[in-house]
Each structure stands twice: as C-alpha cells, then as structure tokens.
Amino acid sequence: MRSRFAVLFALMVAVLMGNVAQAKVYTKCGLTKELLNNGFERSYVGNWVCLVESESAKNTSKVTDKADRTKSLGLFQINSKDWCKFGSVGGKCQIKCENLIDENIQDDSICARKIQRELGFRAWDGWLRSCYGRRLSIPPC
Ligand SMILES: *[C@@H]1O[C@H](CO)[C@@H](O)[C@H](O)[C@H]1NC(C)=O
C-alpha cells in the first residue's frame, strides 16, 4: 500500500515538473541573457527581445491557432506551415513542430534566425506592430 503511494507521488512530481519545464516564461533580463547564450548578435538582441515580447509574451509554450489551420509556435511564434512538421522532422528548419513549444529554445533560435535571414524581421507581424522603426538597444540587466 505504501509503495503504491510512493509510485503515485513520484508520478505526480514528474507530471508537475514536466509542466513547469514545458511552460517557461522569461523575464526581460532572463530572455536577453538566453538569446545571447544562443548565438544572437548583440546588435540585434534589442529587436529580438521586442519581437518575442510582442509575439509570445516571452512564453516558450504559447500556441496560436491561425485561420488557415496552421499554428504559430513558441517564443518566436514560428509557423507550422513552412518551417516545421508535426510528428516528424521536417519543414524548412528541419525540426519537429512539437519541439518549438518546449523549454529548450536552441532549435527555436536557429530556426528564427533562418527566417530572419530569408525574410527579415518583417516576417513577424508582432515585430512590425511593436518594434519596426524603433531604436532598440540591448535591455540593461
Ligand atoms: C504560457 O502558455 C501556455 C500555453 O498557451 C499557457 O497554458 C500558460 O498559461 C502560459 N503561461 C503564462 C504565465 O501566461
């Protein structure tokens, strides 16, 4: 009986920790540091932080259902239509869409920079809306 409770408890802890790990919300400063650690150029980090604030409110697990039945996923709200594939590796970023909503933003970051190289920041409505034309220096930490 006691070991059954132990198993149940361990399971509950695992589920709770899983949820915590799945939905990380960064502070502005935490995000700035994380972007610098993930290979973003210092001179653009102000723009990226603004973009992420506008697109996902810094929430790594944000999912937005779009009218065309695609989804925008994660911190950078990367769209499932072109850039990733559900269920297997694919899209222009060669990643699983599911991996764009976990707390590991390394793959998200590589994909976001690819989108920026190909289409520019104007690929993001949130950037156009909130960041375009502003002088965005790196947030102080
Ligand atoms: C982050 O996004 C997830 C998925 O949409 C949501 O369940 C969660 O409540 C959000 N967290 C915060 C703090 O807004």
From TrEMBL:
Ranges for domain Glycosyl hydrolases family 22 (GH22): 93-111
Name of the top EC class for this enzyme: hydrolase
Annotated EC: 3.2.1.17
Keywords: Antimicrobial, Bacteriolytic enzyme, Disulfide bond, Glycosidase, Hydrolase, Signal
Annotated signal sequence range: 1-23
Pfam families: Lys
GO molecular function, a single term: lysozyme activity
GO process annotations (BP): defense response to bacterium; killing of cells of another organism
UniProt family annotation: Belongs to the glycosyl hydrolase 22 family.
Name of the featured protein: lysozyme
